[in-house]
Each structure stands twice: as C-alpha cells, then as structure tokens.
Amino acid sequence: MIIQERLETIVKESLEEFVAYLRKGPSTHGYDAILAYDRLRANRLLLQEYIDRFDSGQYFAPLTFTTVITPATTWERLVDHVLDKPRLSFERASITHSRADLKMRISGGKQLTLSRPAGSKYKQITRVREADGLDGPDLHVRIELDSSPGTVSEAGKVFIDLKKAQDFYLRFADTGEENRAGGDRYKKIFDGWDDAQKILVLNEMKITKEDFLQPEKFIVRTHASPDSRVRNSTKNGGGAVIIPVTMRDSDNSEAGLPDNDENMHYLLPSPDENASNPYTMNLLLGNKFLIKRLVTRGLEKVENQSDAFEAKYIGGEDNTFVTGIQATKGKLIIPLKGATENVKTIDFTNGLALGFVATGDDKFTRFEVKAGDDSLNFEWFGQGTCPVSLERMNGTWKKGEVNYIWEYKASYQFHVETAGNDIGQLTLKLAATPTMRHKMVPDEKLRMVGDGPGFLSQFIDFGELKILENIRSTIDTIVSVAEDIDAFRLNGLLFRSGKESAQPSAVRFPGDLTLPGYLSPARTEFEFETPEPLVLAGLKHQFRITPAPVGAVTWTAANLPGEETEDYGSINPQTGEYTAPALGSLVRGDKRVIVTATSGKSFTKALVSITRRSLGVSPMVMQAAADGKYLLTAATIDRSPVEFSLPADSYGYFSDDPEADPSGQQQSKYYHLPKCKCTCSCPNGKQHVFAGKLVKDEGGKDKWVCKVEGDNDDNCQCEVKPLPGFELERVSDLPRKSQQWLQRHQQWLDSGTQTDWPWEDDISEVLRVETIRVTSSSLGETVETPVLIPIENQTHWFKHDVEPGVAGGEDGLRLTFQSSDKEGEYDVPAEDTTWYRVYGNAKFEDGVLTPVSIDGKPLTPYTVIAAIEYDRRSWLWTYAILPVPLIKPQVLVDTLYGPDDEENGKEAAQ
What is the pTM of this model? Predict the structure, then answer.
C-alpha cells in the first residue's frame, strides 16, 4: 500500500524574493549543483516510474530461511517468500534526519511458527500463515541518507550504496522484538551479498568527456519547508528532496550542507507571492563551476590558438561569488588573406594576432568575463602589430606593418525554452547590441602614395572588418556552449525519465544559476485514489483519480511486458470501470495489470493486482498458550472495515494493535489468552475485557483478582472468571485426569451400557478449540481462524515421515505417536492409541495423512490431528498442525527436523 499524503499548497517566498536571496552570495554550499524537488511529488513520480518498469520478472529469487525467535524454543520458518521489486520513497523531511524508505511487498510464500514443547523431542508447528498480494507483510529498509551516498559509475550507472542500510523491519510476528528479528534475518542475507549487489540502481546515464555536465557523486537529503517547521503546523512533513552534486574532476572537499533545516534556505519558491502553484522543482548551478566551465570549454572550441588560454578567477574568496574570469595567457593567430576591388591580394603574412593578455610594454590588452545583474558580460580590449603584404592590381607588391586596437563589450543573458520541441534548452542571448571600437593604422611604407584611389582605404576597411568578425566569432563560440549545458539531464540522478521530467518555467542568474519549474506535471498533475489496488478475479472495480482534471479522461488497460498474450480483463474507456479477468483465465498466482488514465497531455498509471480471494485473514490456524498475545491481520479487497469476533464462552479477548496503519491494506487486532478473564461494565458505558491476575490473599491462598485498566471509576461491575485448566499454576508436567472426567468415566463403566465411550469427551479435556471469526459486512464474507488451546501439557510427540506416492503419485505424511518412560523412547502401540481429527478434510487413517478430500469439498490447506494414549489416571497426548497440501510433505519434514540454530536456506541472489 502506498501511503498517499495530501499535496498542500504552501505559501512560499516569491521568485523575486528568492532571487534577491541568491544575490547575497553562493547558495550551493560548495557543490557544483543542487537539485531540489517537492518531496510528495517526487514520491509520486517515483511510484509512477516504478509502475512503468514493473514486469513479471523477480528482483529477488524466492527466499526460504529460518529466524530464531527464542533460542532452542521458538522459530519462524519462511518458505518460498516472494518479494516484489523495491520501491523508493522519501520520508518526512529534515536535513538532520534525512531518510528514505525502501519497501518490498511479500506477495507470496508460507510462514510457519515452530516451537518445542517442554519434554518433546521434536519441533511442533503452532501457527500457519500464507502471504499473497491481498494479505502479505511488507519488508521495510530504512536508509539513513547521510551514510548512503550516490555515485555515477564510469559506465553511467546511477546508484545509491546500501552497504550501510541498518534498519530492516518485517512485520511478520507478534511483537516488535520478533519483527526486528525477522528484519535482522533479511539483513544477514543482505550482508552476505557482494558489494556489487548492495546497490540500488536508479538509472543509466551515458556520460562522455564532451558533456558539459558530468556528475560523479551526489548525496540525497530531505529538507523541511519553512512553515512545516512550526510546531503543530498542518503542513508538517512536506518539504523538499535535495540532491547536491559533484562533477568529475571537481574538488568539493570543502562542500557541506548546513547542520539543520533553519540554516538551509528553502529552494522551492513560487512564481509570485499570489501564485497558487509553487514550483515543485529547481536546479541551481554553482556560480564558480558554471563560469569556469562555460568559458574554458568555449575557448577549447576556438580555433587558431597559438598560446593555450589560461585564466584566473575574480572574486570567490570567503564564500563570495566568483564575479568573473580574467585571462592570464592566450593568443589567437588567425590566418588571413583576402582581396578587395582595388587590392588584388591582402596577406597578413604571420596571421592576424588577437591577444587575450598584455605582454611587454602593452598595458591595454585584457580579456574578462564578468557576472552581474543577471548577465554574463564579455570585455575584450587589445592591440597588436602585424606584417602585411599587399599586391597591386598590376602584380607588384608593397610590404609593411599595421597597428590596430580594439574594444569590444557584449552582455548576454540566459534563456530557457519553456515549450515546444526544444523545451529545457538553455542559450545565452544578447541583452543589448554589443559595443565595438576598433581602428587599424598602416605604417609609413604602406601609406606611400601612388597606389591609386581606394587602395589603402579598402585595405583598412578589410582589416578592421576581420578584427570585428573574429572577435564576434570567438565570443559566439564561447556563448554557444550554453546550449550544451543540458541542465535537466541531471534529473536522471533520481528519475528514469531524466530531462523529460522537467517543465522549466524561468531562468535567473543573480550569481548562481537558478532554473525553477515543475516536476513532470504530465505525470504528477493527478493520481489514482488507489495507485496499487487489488481486484478480485472476474469482478468490477471503479477507478477514480484525484484531483479531478478539467478535461475528459480516457482509460486503458494493458498487460505487463512479457505477458501480452494473457487476458488482462477490460475497461470502459469513458468511465474507468474495470472488469478483471475471470478466475479460470489466470495462468499465474500474482497477475498484474497496468491501468492508465489520460487527460490531455497528462496521464497517470495504476498497478493492479488480480487476487483469487476477497477477504484474507492471517494466521489461518494457530496455537495459543496462557498469558499469550498474538497478532491477527485481515485485509479486504475493497479496504472495507472488518469485525473480529469470538464466541460468548471464549477464553480469549481482543485488544487494538498500537502499530496499526489506518491507511494500510491490513487491519489488525491482538488476541490475548489470559489465565483469568475479567469482564467489567462501567457506568460511563465502557466495557473492559482483560486479563486477571493470580495473587496470594492474606491467608496465603491463591486467588484471582481484576484491576480495571484505564478507568478509575470504582463503580465498575467486574466479574472475574478463572479459565478451566488454568485455575492454579501447574506444579507437574504430568497432566492428571480431572475428578469430573474420572467420575464420568466410572459412571459409564458402571452403567454397563453397550454404547461406545464418547471419545470427544477425552479430547475436550486436553485441547480446546475456539474460533475467531473475521467478517466483512460489505463483502458479505466471513473467514474463520481456529485457535488451539492446550488445556493440559503435552506428554508425547509425533515423528513425521514422508509417505511416498499415496495419492496418485502425491506424497503423504506418516505420523508415529511416541513418548518416553524410564526405559527410554517408545512408539505407542496402536491398541493404546486413539486418533482425533480436530480440523480438516484430508484423508487420515492409521497415522497416515493423504492429501485427498474425504467429503467432496475443496481440500483444506491444513489438518489438525491429535492422539491420546490410554491411561487410567493421566492424560498422555499430543497434537499437530499439518500444513499439507499448503506445503509439500518433504518440506514440512525438513522444516521440523532442521537444526535449532538454522539460519541458512535458499537465499536470494540479486
């Protein structure tokens, strides 16, 4: 179940206020870039992309293993547990406690609770569960993001390292301690994998040396929005996901985020103070990284460099902006020849020299790129002297030198395409017409008279034009690099849709470059009310999306990749009413279907699980011991509430589950089996049912007392009722037959009756069965869970063996009734054994269970068998839960006779 959090409209600062903040100084905290996303919409998009790539393949192989709950006493055995693909989401926001949740649903498999009764040689099954898409637990792996950095490998694989993932939690047992033990068992499996397997691959990004942005390392944090930090704020828990990025070949050793939310400026403003649609995405490119990268990569593309360009930063000390770059080395020597109407040949013999820095007595030449006022400003001043050869029209030549000088200023502003095929494309565009002053002066040799009209003036015009053209082309080459920035490609660090997930709205350059916009509005504008619903095979389900879009919605359904030939049901394209495929057409136990709702250019998907049952209850059978507390879960296909009920004469009672998730698929209660039950009715109308307590009175005698919990009203009327079999603490492991039973049996003997002794009278003396009923009123269904309550201690045990081929090739199970006395272990003779079928309809004769129905009804998934050895004074007995055909007899035998400390099993390889 995906926990859907309400997407609230939070009043944030306007874009202009945010830009004013950015003008104060660098805001990327030493990183080359920072990405920011609205956390709830990021989670929504992650779920959509999870559905996009969901297929029928398994991320993990089925897992079979044992978790030791209490050494030598209690175990949980998981058989063929199937986990679906992990889905990532980010938890409530805080920089100091940034966490992500990696959830894997257990959609198949069986779970057996094992215990060893006192004095027994073998383990015994005390509870049976079956997981499926309707009623299966979730494995949660909580990732402390400050210890799980992200990396982009040389091959372009984007991943988060999970080696330090610590908190594994599997809610599969009765107590938090047991659930943590189950999670720890999964962690041991995880720890046994190679390091290469302990990574969560987010995406694949092909990176080349030519790319402007080459991310290498990143971290992920969550950040609370300003108003969510206010105590009792209704908006608590929204916030942003932020991703600081380090590029290849960058030294960000001094980088680091603030240590609390208050010292980190919130990076998601609104378009203006009245906007109802605050930005849900922003990208900051660091001032120092951007300017250096832009200018140096631009000059790398400039041809005809005789001295390679080198530069120094202007500013940037003490956490201030880099205000520009100033050339410290570099010169262009441009080959230049040409002609005019009156000059046959113009040849700059050694090329046209355009220097970036002053040399010798030159104090004028300089090249600077300055950042300020949302602009990138180029200033290139210079002077030079070059030899020139000029050919007259008659073929004669004259040679000399020219002196030239130039001043060029151009201001550019960043622009981003917000629509069309080039959406997201960054460019630098001229903010105003460049200013250019330049002059070329020939020496005396070239100025000699006699060359005819226009000869010298045309040459000067030609030279001055070439100076202007080459300066402009050099600057144009540098600024064209902005088109290579491909900023929104960085979205691929988290989202597979990469730059397609961005809808930019603006670009500003007050120091750092900011690109606010919207995170994949086509995918996050609306969503299914239930993005991962369960639908019963053959039945209908009405899909709905929220918030309702303005335009019409079109609905479609489709199979997963690889299952194209299977029946996926049908859907009304106008109404969204879906009809699941019939039960008989299902070829797999975990059929999934993808339903898509489309309105205009926006769409959202749901991952539908087709189930074979509409009401699931776990466990399907269990043993309860006095003073025990046991978790029950139930799930309905329509998420409707269920009622847990017990018979009026029940030994047990229910209490609420304090860890229940009200938005989850499962509903839960705890079943308690006290030794004494107190029922209290209070004047305020409250009813209390809880456990009593055995205490000593003033005379030292045992007595049962009630204490009303949670109510101080002394007028409550309470009835204390010790439960049969639990009246006193047992002082012997040998259960004696009650005086009542002995009297009944003697009366039967004395009567001389010809009728058989009612053996059910015997089993009721040692084993009580009470039934928990779980009812869904909306579905009109009830599921029953038998609770087996041993009233007397077990003295014997069963030895389990596979009985080959007893049912058309299917194996059965043989039980051997055993115990021990002062001479050692023995098999109880058949003539002294009475067998009891407590539950189930499988064939059972002479100790052999055959997986064949005896009443023509569907075979029950388990059978409960008990046996009593005849004895005049004592109850000598045992019982067994036999989950056949739910699991194979051989698997059952292997489970019961596995080592006490078994931790190994069929473990997953990624």
Answer: 0.79
